[in-house]
Amino acid sequence: MKRKLRRLSAVLLAASMVMTGCGATESSGKATTTTIAKNETAKSETIKSDEKITIEYWHCNAEAQGGAAVEELVSKFNEENDHIEVIAKYNPDMYAGLMKNLQAEVAVGNTPAVVQIGWSYLEYFSNNFSYLTPQDAIAKYDAENSTYLTDNFLPNILNLAVNTAGEQVGIPYSLSSPVLYYNVDLFREAGLSEEGPQTWEQVYEYSKIINEKTGKYGCYIEDDNWGAQALLESNGAQFIATDEAGNMYTDIASEGGIEAMQMWADMIAEGLIPHVTWDEGCQAFNAGEVAMLYTTIARRASVQSTAQFEAAAVNSPVWEGKERVIPAGGCMLAITAQEEEEQAAAWEFMKYLYSIEGMATWTIGTGYVPPRKDVADSPEGLKSFLEENEMMKAATTQMDGVVSWASFPGDAGLEIDQILSDTQDQILGGSITAKDGLAAAQDKINALLGN
Amino acid sequence: MKKRKAKEHLLAGVFILPALIAFCIFMFWPLIRTIYLSFFDWNMIKPVKEFVGLQNYIDLFKDEVTYKILGNTVIYIAILLVLNFVAPYVVSFLLTFIIKKGKSFYKTAFFLPSVISLVVGSVLYVWILNPISGPVAIILKNFGMQLPTWSKTDGLVIVILSLITSWKVFGYNFIIVLGGVMGVSQEVIEAAKIDNISDFKIFTQIVLPMSSATGVYVLIMTIIQGLQYVYTPITVVTQGGPNNASSNLIYQSYHEAFTLYQTGDASALSVITMALFIVLLLLEFKFVEKGVYYEN
């Protein structure tokens, strides 16, 4: 019995020594070497089996939000080529979630090959991570196609993935823009034009009529920085502006910005539109309790499948007599692979994703607008799909108004996003006027930008 | 004799070791690391951590958001104590000594929700309590009432998020408290009843003191675990909004670290949070622990 105990304790002790040993290596910063060693063994194994190179593609598309399309694209690519194996890895919690995971993975010296980077992380990503620009990838691994980017993409679209330092960080992949969905049945009941509103002034007016005639709310406007940017910039404000000397500043508290923000707050104060979270707002629209919904075109499939009424969509409204300015939502693809072989494989995979068929699969599966030329009109592309899907037109016909989603440069960039969303909460909650709130936020932001 | 004792000590050490190692790796090391990081300006990626001394702490104390969040945390604690400590106690007492029929049904019914994930629960509640189109709003509408837009209302948002959390915590706490209350000897209660002592007095002067060992445990768990559990509905429903009105110390540390990537600020806030909890625990040892009744 005693001997048994002794043996047992020896085993336990040995086991615990191993455990502490592991803990010590992990925590003393040697993790990098461990992972490299792991990569090497993985590689030598793959070389043995058909010499395939394995790369990881990180995306944010849950099953119902394009995940199926990711699977379809990846498995097709894997079947069609004999030297690359792509593993798609889903990251919950959208681009913020992916950024968190990437941060953690890079901290231990590991990187995926291709990643989706949300627009608002353009600056943060390019300032903090090491990546291969698409033009460099072409120069290194695909030299005969040196004009690939300008041949296939519109300049204002390519520009979305250019950071403030002027570098093309990646290639736009998922493109969305805000549109106005509306409940045609409720419009009819209230005696409004079934064509939907064209201007924000009309949205206000229609909301009053709907509220009076049907007792329902007029409109839900996506209440984050994205929705605010569309509303304010269309009325002349600028989230990020540059002066003659090239210094960046924000101009949200301009006359137009204040006017737009105040109208939004007034609509809430008058009880015409609800002040709720995005989830709640979308639910309420789908349940027929809110007549209009101002949010991303990526929400189209969900509106079509859940709404129990006739739903339609129009272009993002403009302010009377002004141009439409709307921020792009979605993401770009960037190459984070560090080793040459992986970089070459990553570029090959990306080219497949940007092919006309690849883009068509992606658009149908997600509801994003294709960033590439020729997809909309090509018979292998989306011609028939767009003819059947009236709602998509609301987004595809407003591409000329698309600008970058404000991504503030520098270390304080994410902090500025937070200031904007806190300010918006205060104004829409009615605790401060648009004028005071935006002016205070503008001062804080300009101070952080170093002005 | 001495030899045997030494052996026993060794054996005890061996048995403690696995737990101790796990603690060191997952609790003490991160703790030390957090304190260390709170003196640096870093974003988890930059190769150089810039040493800033106490600046992160000074910034925190200068920032009015910190005080707002402290206030929120206190409100959260107060509400959670009522929902997850006082309520389970009262219910346990009623179930053990007052209610005679259907006891096992109530036990199961109260405990059942706590097996469902809090994320699922939060998503469900967003739908149930949707102020415009949710079932509760529709029922209220029939009575001519309106559900306030709680997700965007200061104060109310904390109450609702606490309610969502209670869904998970109540059942678990209830089972533990019930165990404690059932441990109170039936004879004492019978005797008191014969003497015509009111139920209220039986509860406050007999049951509470005699089950206080369990009670203190649940009290501490309600505060500490409650704040951690609230984190989930905050993340799912409001992300700390509107304007930080629903954030608490734990969510805010996470937010600073993994949304804003301000590792230094986040660590400093964590350290302050820990200090506050230590103070709370000391107070508890000093004032509560003394009066606790341990059966053995």
Summarize the structure.
With 451 residues, chain A is of the alpha/beta class. Chain A has helices at residues 2-27, 31-48, 67-80, 94-107, 122-128, 134-141, 148-152, 155-158, 184-189, 200-214, 225-233, 255-269, 278-286, 300-306, 340-353, 356-366, 383-388, 390-396, 413-428, 434-448; strands spanning 53-59, 84-90, 114-118, 171-176, 178-183, 217-221, 238-242, 248-251, 290-296, 311-314, 326-327, 329-335, 402-403. The longest helix of chain A has 26 residues, at 2-27.
Question: Can you walk through the features of this model?
Answer:
- The complex is a heterodimer of chains A (451) and B (296).
- Helix content of chain A is 50%, strand content 15%.
- Chain A is of the alpha/beta class.
- In chain A, strands 2-1-3-12-4 form a five-stranded mixed β-sheet. In chain A, strands 6-9-5-10 form a four-stranded mixed β-sheet. In chain A, strands 7-8 form a two-stranded antiparallel ribbon.
- Chain A starts with a helix and ends with a helix.
- Chain B is mainly α.
- Chain B has a single domain, classed as MetI-like fold (Orthogonal Bundle).
- Helix content of chain B is 74%, strand content 1%.
- In chain B, strand 1 and strand 2 (50-51) form a beta hairpin.
- In chain B, helix 1 packs across helix 12 (263-288), helix 2 (55-62) crosses helix 12 and helix 5 crosses helix 10 (212-238).
- Chain B is flat, with a radius of gyration of 23 Å.
- In chain B, 32% of the residues are buried.
- The mean pLDDT of chain B is 89.
- At the A-B interface, helix 1, helix 4, helix 13 and helix 19 of A face helix 1 of B.
